[in-house]
């Protein structure tokens, strides 16, 4: 897949294009003809990438969180979960493919895994509705959480959505109630639950499967009650003011941990998770293993109490 560069990465893209050009020239000029120049340019690219990603603002992080080549739910399942068996349908209306879930083993531990999937190309994005779940998606998640509690399985939840689907059908079938039921079920679970915000966690569409004992966030992910575009549209009557809204909303991982909305930041490879998906997935797995080990010995009542207190504490001085 061709690299997708963000606007602030254009100088890096220009240098990498120059490297490709010199590499192609060396094929005709003879082996090693431009090796020194290529090495020097690659070192410069590394320095530029490190500097760029060390000084990102909220809008740049928003762009990274939405990067089409970031690992998605299916990638985390493929990299972390063995013997995965997908469980479909909400037993009420339909099977929503924006929220996926099922049974599997995470590094030897049986788990229930739930997550939002955006898709990687046109076909899969349409199939998964760009990660925008309908009511049946949240009702499926509740069904899977019920199963997890019945069989004493920890729940791992992966959040990556621009929000729940706002269409007429969703409203007719009670999307607000379905999200509320999902949030309620997260809070009342008697088994450990860990939520990981891997890209963008927007609005109730995110919290419906994110009210966990531990809420983790990737270094360049974002989490908020509304998207920057939605905020700008409502408060400023102008969606083009989204960049300013993003900076004012305190949606970055660093802002969120300072305000005690999330519990831990998972570092990403230099250049973001999309630059090295395998390394990003492994880092998520290592942190999950550590967090899960701390929660597994806790009793159902202790888990419920800790989870409730965690959310009650948000906003307290």
The number of distinct helices, counting runs of at least 4 residues, comes to 14
According to CATH, what is the class of the largest domain? Alpha Beta
Main sheet properties: 8 strands, mixed
Question: Alpha-carbon distance between the termini?
Answer: 47 Å
Secondary-structure-derived class: alpha/beta
The CATH topology of the largest domain is: 2-enoyl-CoA Hydratase, Chain A, domain 1
- Number of strand segments: 8
CATH superfamily of the largest domain: 2-enoyl-CoA Hydratase, Chain A, domain 1
| Average of pLDDT | 93
Element-by-element helix/strand order? HHHHEEEHHEHHEHEEHHHEHH
The quaternary structure here is single chain
The CATH architecture of the largest domain comes to Alpha-Beta Complex
How much of the sequence lies in strands comes to 15-25%
Shape: globular
Helix content: 40-55%
Structure overview:
- With 317 residues, this protein is an alpha/beta fold.
- It has two domains: 7-55; 62-312, 2-enoyl-CoA Hydratase, Chain A, domain 1 (Alpha-Beta Complex), CATH 3.90.226.10.
- The protein is 49% helix and 16% strand.
- It has helices at 10-29, 35-54, 58-65, 73-80, 122-127, 135-150, 168-172, 175-188, 203-207, 228-235, 242-249, 253-258, 277-295, 300-312; strands at 81-86, 99-106, 109-116, 155-161, 193-202, 214-218, 222-224, 264-266.
- Strands 1, 2, 3, 4, 5, 6, 7 and 8 form an eight-stranded mixed sheet that branches.
- Helix 4 packs across helix 13 (277-295).
- It is globular.
- The termini are far apart.
- The mean pLDDT is 93.
